C-alpha cells in the first residue's frame, strides 16, 4: 500500500484533495488493483480448469473464441453472466438472498489484503497475518448458509449445511498445519514467514524437514475441502443437489459465487505458497543466480502449479461420501496434524 | 489400529494411481473433431438428403407410396396425345407430366425405401448433410420443373393411405 500511496502522490494536484479523501485514496486504489488482478487470475484459472478437465478426458475444451485455444472464452462467459437477467425467485428471503453472494466473495477477497506477492507488493503486513486469513476466510460460511437458507429450496439448504459442516471441520486441521510453520518462524506475519525461507529451495519449509512436508500435505487436503473442490465438493454435488447452495442464483449473483470459489482456490494456493513454498523467493539462491525474475511472477508461478494440482485431483478423484468426509477429517487429518505439531515443535527446539 | 493405517495407505495409493492415470490422459491426443473445420470422412453410400433428377422422373408415384412417413408429394397429369413424346434417359416414356414433386426433409427418416422403389433410379440420396434452416418449411424441397396445363384436369394425386 505504501508504494501505491507513493504512486498516488505523483498525480498532479493530489495534495489539493481534502484530508479525508486523500486518506481513503490509497485504500481504494489498492483494492481496485487487487480486484483487477484477482479478476484476471480467475478468468485465467477458469480457462485453465476447462482446458485441464478437457485434456484429462481426451477432449479439447474451448477452442474457438479468441483464436488461440479459445483463450477469450471465459471473457465471453463473464460478459454473458454480467448481461444476464437477474432472477430473484418469488419465495426467497430477498434481503439475505441478495446479500449472500457478496458476503461469500468478501470472505475470500478480504484475505487477499495480507498476501505478500512480492517483497514490497502487498497491501499491508499485519503482524497476525495468517491468523487474519484463517479468520476472515471462514466468513464465507455465513454467506453460504445465508444463500442456502434464503433460497427456500431443499437442495440449496442441504448444500449449505454440508458446506458449513465441511468448512468448519476442515478448518481445524488446516489451522493446526499452519501452526507447524509458525513454530519455526515465531511470527504470524506473512512477510516474516516468507523472509524466514529466503536462500534457495532447501530453505523452503516444504523441504526443511519431514514434519513440515507432511504438514503441507495435510494443509493441502484440508484446503481442498475448505474451498469445496472435488473430492470434497459435496456442497455442490451436481448429481445429488442440482448445484448446491447456489441453485437458485443466476446472472451477476451467480458470477459472484463463481468468482468467490476461484478466489478461494487462489487464496489457499497462495497461502500454501507463502507458508511452504517460499512465497516470492526463487528456488536458486541469490548467490548462485541473480534474481532477475520479479517476485510476484515467481509467486504466481508457484501458486499456479498448486492450482494445477488441485485441478488435476479434481478430475481424477470421485466425490467422497459424507461419512467418509468426516472420517478423513476427524480420524485422519486431525490426529496427524497434532502429531505433526508435536514433531515440528521438537524439531524447532533442536 | 492396523486396518486404520492400512486404510490410509490404501487411500494414498489410490489417489496416486488415479492421478497417474489422469496425468497420462492429459497428454494423450484428444479425440475431438473440430467440426466445422474438420469433417468426418462419410462412409460409402451414406444416406443423407434426397435428390431427384427430375428429367428422369416418370411421375409414377412409387416413391410416395413406399415412403413410411409420407413425406413425398407427387402430383401429375396425363400428357395430351398431340404432345411430342418425352423420354427419360433410360428410354422410359414419360407419359405423365409431374408438376408437383415435393419432399419434406423434415419428415424424412432417411430409410431410403423410396430410392429402391424408383423404377428409373432418378431418386437418390446424396452425401449432403449440412442443410439446417431457420424455418421448417424450407425443408420442403420442390423438384418439379413443369407446369400443369389444366389444374382442373388433375388426374393423379398423392396416393391415399394403404
Ligand atoms: S428416405 Fe424413407 S422417409 Fe425419406 S422420403 Fe424416402 S421413403 Fe420417405
Ligand atoms: S418412383 Fe422415381 S420415377 Fe416414380 S415418381 Fe418417384 S422419383 Fe419419380
Overview of this structure, please?
- The complex is a heterodimer of chains A (350) and B (162).
- Chain A is an all-alpha fold and 350 residues long.
- Chain A has one domain (92-348).
- Chain A is 66% helix and 0% strand.
- Chain B is an alpha+beta fold and 162 residues long.
- Chain B has three helices and five strands.
- The model of chain B has no long low-confidence stretch (mean pLDDT 83).
- The chains are: A mainly alpha (350), B alpha+beta (162).
- Chain A binds chain B through residues 52, 54-60, 63, 312-313, 315-317, 331-332, and chain B through 4, 8, 15, 18-19, 21-23, 25-32, 34.
- One iron/sulfur cluster (SF4) binds at residues 50, 66-69, 71-72, 103, 108-114 of chain B.
- One iron/sulfur cluster (SF4) is lined by residues 50, 66-69, 71-72, 103, 108-114 of chain B.
Strand and helix layout:
The complex is a heterodimer of chains A (350) and B (162).
Chain A: H1 2-9, H2 19-56, H3 73-83, H4 94-110, H5 129-137, H6 139-150, H7 154-185, H8 190-195, H9 205-208, H10 210-226, H11 238-241, H12 251-276, H13 295-314, H14 322-349
Helix pairs in contact in A: 1-2, 2-3, 2-12, 2-13, 3-12, 4-6, 4-12, 6-7, 7-10, 7-14, 10-12, 10-14, 12-13
Chain B: H1 2-26, E1 50-52, H2 62-66, E2 72-78, E3 96-104, H3 113-117, E4 123-125, E5 140-142
Antiparallel strand pairs in B: 1-4, 2-3, 3-5
State the gist of this model:
The complex is a heterodimer of chains A (350) and B (162). Chain A is 66% helix and 0% strand.
**Major beta-sheet overview of chain B:** 3 strands, antiparallel
SSE string of chain B, helix = H, strand = E? HEHEEHEE
Number of discrete helical segments of chain B? 3
Return the string of H and E elements of chain A.
Answer: HHHHHHHHHHHHHH
Radius of gyration of chain B in whole Å, from Cα?
Answer: 28 Å
Structural class assignment of chain A: mainly alpha
Overall strand count of chain B: 5
Cα distance spanning the termini of chain B: 78 Å
Bound ligands, each once:
iron/sulfur cluster
Shape of chain B: rod-shaped
Rg of chain A, please?
Answer: 21 Å
Mean pLDDT across residues of chain A: 83
Largest chain-chain contact?
Answer: A-B, 16 and 17 residues
Global structural class of chain B: alpha+beta
Q: Specify the number of helices of chain A.
A: 14
- Percent helix of chain B, as a range, is 10-25%
Name the shape of chain A in a single word: globular
Topology, number of strands of chain A? 0
Task: Detail the poorly predicted runs of chain A.
Answer: none
